[in-house]
C-alpha cells in the first residue's frame, strides 16, 4: 500500500512539474516610473553669466591661452621645437672630433643636426655617443618628485639590430 501511495505521490509531483513547464510564463509587471518631482523651473528672464568664473579649457600656467594654443604656437622652429618624446634619431656622425646627431620630429620630415648642449622644446642634449643621444628632459608633472630625467634615444632600436 505504501508503494502505491508513494507511486501516486511521485506521479502527481511529475504531473505538476510538467504542467508548470508547459504553462506560458506570465510577463513581469512593467517597472513603474518614478513620480515626477515638482522641481521649480528657472525664471523666463534667467541667463548664466560667466563673469568671474574660469574657463575650464584655458591653460592654468599661461592665462588667456587655451591648452591647444599653448602646445601648437609655443613651439620654436627647428630642433628647439621638438619634444623629447617626439624625437627620432636618424643618424650620428663624427665631425671635428665631436659627435653630431641627425634628428627629426613628427610630421615635417625635416632632419636637424644637434650637438651636446643643444636645446629641445622640453630638454637639453647632454651627450651624444656613437649609438645614442642622451637628453635631460624637464619633467612638468607637478606631482612628480623628479624635476628632470635622463632619456636615451638609441640610433637603432632593438628590433633593427637583430
Task: Write structural notes for this entry.
- The chain has about 160 residues and is an alpha+beta fold.
- The protein has a domain at about 80-155: SH3 type barrels (Roll).
- About 20% of the residues lie in helices and about 25% in strands.
- The protein contains three helices and six strands; from the N terminus they run ααββββββα.
- The chain has helices spanning about 1-20, 65-75, 160, and strands at about 90-95, 100-105, 110-115, 125-130, 130-140, 150-155.
- The strands form two sheets. A three-stranded antiparallel beta sheet has the order 1-2-3, with no helix packed on it.
- A hairpin with a 2-residue loop joins β1 (about 90-95) and β2.
- The N and C termini lie far apart (about 85 Å).
- The model is unreliable at about 65-70 (pLDDT under 50).
